Please model this.
Amino acid sequence: MSPTCFAEDQLPPGFPTIDMGPQLKVVERTRTATMLCAASGNPDPDITWFKDFLPVNTTNNNGRIKQLRSESFGGTPIRGALQIEHSEEPDQGKYECVATNNDGTRYSAPANLYVRELREVRRVPPRFSIPPTDNEIMPGGSVNITCVAVGSPMPYVKWMLGAEDLTPEDDMPIGRNVLELTDVRQSANYTCVAMSTLGVIEAMAQITVKALPKAPGTPVVTERTATSITLTWDSGNPEPVSYYIIQHKSKYSDDLYKEIDGVATTRYSVGGLSPYSDYEFRVVAVNNIGRGPPSESIEAKTAEQAPSTAPRQVRGHMMSATTAVIQWDEPEEPNGQIMGYRVYYTMDYSQHVNLWEKQIVRGSNFVTIQGLIPNKTYYIKVLAFTSVGDGPLSPELQIIAKTGVPSQPTDFKGEAKSETSILLSWNAPAQTGLENQVTGYELTYRKKDDKDEKRISFEPTTTYLLKDLKPFTTYTFRLAARSKHGIGAYTSDISAETPQTLPSGPPRKVEVEAVNSSSIKVIWRSPVPTKQHGQIRGYQVHYVRMVNGEPTGQPVIKDILIDDAQWDYDDTTEHVSSYNRLYCLLCSHSREMLPIDCFFKAV
Model:
């Protein structure tokens, strides 16, 4: 009967399957060679062997070649492995495993068996195949150090700590030794020793116990300017430091230290400090565990600088028709030791200040100016100076050379309280007696771009709420005190702005153009300027679908924001927006829905 061949996808259900075939094998002469084979099928197939395409005889060789019936390899049952004992050169060849049952026969892939001559046993000195490795651990941590050595003969392996043996002599393993360390508190070097009759070798593993860094050395000031202090310090740590943190604060402040993170060197310039000010500095070291304790702190003062602010509260009063006393307070930011003040005064304010009369004052905060011309208005400015230079001039003080007339109010300022009101406040001028007692005030004000001033008189006070102003408008104010002898000098102009409020007028000139059957373009202009009450930031367009002349559903609201670059535009600027897929629009210029074109709101 001739054999029948099947395609792989047409095999009968129980057709044999080779689950494990033989593999290439090299065996020394006289040694045992085992060629593995496992097969399955329904029913279980019988396994036979072929060598060089001929059946292997397992019965006529005194049991030297036999087929194993019950073995296991990696969990796989082996029922047909071929075992060849006392291998000889004729056993060398190409082997195939054959599985057969009622449904057919399957051959494994062939595998070669090579038989070589016995080699002499080599003698090899020990060497480390897996040398011990360094480790870093946290304090109190645990670690296992593995050391593996090979050779012929195989070496014994032990561990040592310095001169101390950690492995008992009567329990020394061969080839591999694992040192188990627990609750490690100190760094140490452990030595793995491998020994045989052919030599002794050693390898060391460094176990480093991680710890927080120590405090750096006390920082030293090496340079200083008005706004910076340069520090240097010693690391104070034998182990590497990841980076440093510089902590600093004002000497007389209760605030927490400010920190400068990530400093990589032991020299750093701390900037952004105030001139002629005392500071405390300290340094913290950081490693991969965390930050250590801070160093000892040091105190340092920044260098002087010219004052950055003018003398405060410049004020004055007339002692007589020709003599005035001018007083002031120290600058808020003197930036050093104030060496003195220069007081400038003139009747001609248009002159450069270098052409004004001046007096230098040292050791006091007032000056007496004599020889003034009666009934003339004088302008007075004061500056402070340090050893480094001059500070800025104060705002001018105006004083009228007339006995009994009040001097200027001081600290005059305005603050918006609502969209239509501004609260003015000031300090009353100095009053030396009944002759210059303040009996009231004169206030003038105007819109920033207007020339016409309005004037208000009111009784003595230090605040005044000005009402009925325009929203989103800048106003300019001047104030003078009044006595029975007349009105004193006015203050310099100050400005205050009322805040924005909602527009009170609608967008203008709304036009609608049909683009096609389902799109329109809407064009409009901003509300009239007097009704904008602020900077128009955008618009809302409301639209709704119309069915038979009636609105259907809720209106759709579209926000149209104006880019910052378009905020400055004149009254003729046109705004355009297009809408697609619309059926009809319902719009109006008010908040009522009227069947015209569009409903707009400026925002």
Q: What stands out?
A: The mean pLDDT is 87. The CA atoms of residues 29 and 108 lie 26 Å apart. The chain has no helices and 51 strands. The longest strand covers residues 141-152.
